[in-house]
TrEMBL record:
Disordered as annotated region, ranges: 1-28
The protein's name in its UniProt record: Coenzyme A transporter
Organism whose genome encodes this protein: Coemansia javaensis
InterPro entries: GDC-like, MCP, MCP_dom_sf, MCP_transmembrane
UniProt main location, coarse: mitochondrion
Transmembrane segment boundaries: 146-166, 207-227, 324-347
Annotated PROSITE patterns: SOLCAR (PS50920)
Amino acid sequence: MTPVAAGAGALPPPPPLHSRRSGRTDGAAEQQAALAAGPSTESAEYALKTLLIGGIAGCTAKTAVAPLDRVKILFQTRNARFTRYSGTHLGLFKAGAAIYREYGVRGLFQGHSMQLVRVFPYAAVKFMSYEQLKTRLGRRIGDEHLRNFLAGSLCGVISLMVSYPLDMIRVRMAYSLPAAGARPEGVVAVARRVFREEAHRFGILNFFRGFTVSLMGIVPYGGVSFLTHEYLTSLGRGRFAALAAQPEGAPPTHTKGRRRRKPELKAWAELASGGVSGVVAQTASYPFELVRRRMQITGAHSPSERVGAAQIVRSVWSTSGVRGFFVGLTIGYLKVVPMFAVSFFTYERLKVLFDLE
């Protein structure tokens, strides 16, 4: 028999084995590629991991600045025993020293346990929801900066709703100054006292004093902080990569099996971008925070009195003018710079550890 010559009349070669198996190998290849790329930002695995590392980052940052936070609350709420330090040179350190002399180290961290209980869900929900919102909003909003601002604002609103009653208890604990040697009230005792205040018919509403003002403040606070951080880190990875980014091949960038595509920033660059974002966010939202703190401690003086935001605004304006809305802002800067720096730094480094994009 004459063999069939190669050419136009030749039969095509048999298809590869994997093509004759209903695309099973193709599907396996796609699955393998997906695994190599890491968990999708919309997957449950990614959400759970960012929830965990966000909470850890928030608690780490708050612990670093707990003493400053205690003094700031005493200044914001014009505690009678500490007003003489407010607005003076080195007033922050003098107030801190006074607390230390009378109450010891525990006095500087009074209310911090409640702070951690509040911060973990707040920070966890904030970072997790930001990642999810950023991805989903990115499909509908072409402007990257607008997307980051909206995602930051919305995640702030969501996390505030989750944690506000815990923040209320924490502020009352930090504001309280028991007699020297006396044991400060615990969480349960403070919560019970707040619940029994007569300002609202339903006791649970007492835990939401100042909530509306907080919502107004969290929009610029959350939006500006994430917008600024994303912008500065993108500059560090792009225009100033030679100065701020880790060189290619340097640990932890060059890790076996690594799936991340973004280069890591150097430690100083990550800390600086977080600190600057905190300064910008604090400046934009501080008047709202001050009014909220005043509303939160109202029940400590007059349990049956309901004081609105407008009344507090008028009181601050008549007493101190514009400057009154920024009392304690210097302390706020001293607090938010290390807090935001540590928070974003810890979060980004944990994302590297978990190999998340």
